Amino acid sequence: MKDLRAEDSAWYWCGVEIGGIWTADDTASVHISVVHGVSVVNQMVTGEEGSSVSVQCFYSDGHRTSVKKWCRSADWNTCVTLGVNGTMKEDSVVISDDHNRAFTVTLLHLGKKDTGWYRCAAGHQHATVHIEVVPRSLTELTP
């Protein structure tokens, strides 16, 4: 499902036809609630030391003009805030907003100290992401 709107909130059915007319089909129902908010595709991201990782944060239409932030863990004092021009670079963090319901955060020059939980936020909504930094692979270290 793509481009969901609040009016798409409802019960949906999914089914698989197993056999013929005398065989019961497998079905399941799920309730989808579409709310204004922020989400990420991957909540667990891994990158090698010295490399970069990017996290795409999606936001609903209601947050197009909201302030976008990238924060370390639950400490809102560590947030890097995106300016109105749609792009921001600070030390080893780059944030860019496409103004089409997604902004991308790139962490540059990863070190072990970057391992941990982060939040991408739009307005008062946020999604959590865990970044794990692993040692560079041995094949890359060998000349």
From TrEMBL:
Segments forming domain Ig-like: 49-139
Protein name, per record: Ig-like domain-containing protein
Location in or out of the cell: Membrane
Keyword entries, A-Z: Membrane, Transmembrane
Record keyword Transferase present: no
Source species, domain of life: Eukaryota
GO MF entries: transmembrane signaling receptor activity
InterPro entries hit by this protein: CD300_family_receptors, Ig-like_dom, Ig-like_dom_sf, Ig-like_fold, Ig_sub, Ig_V-set
Stored SUPFAM superfamilies: Immunoglobulin
GO cellular component, one term: plasma membrane
Signal sequence, start to end: none
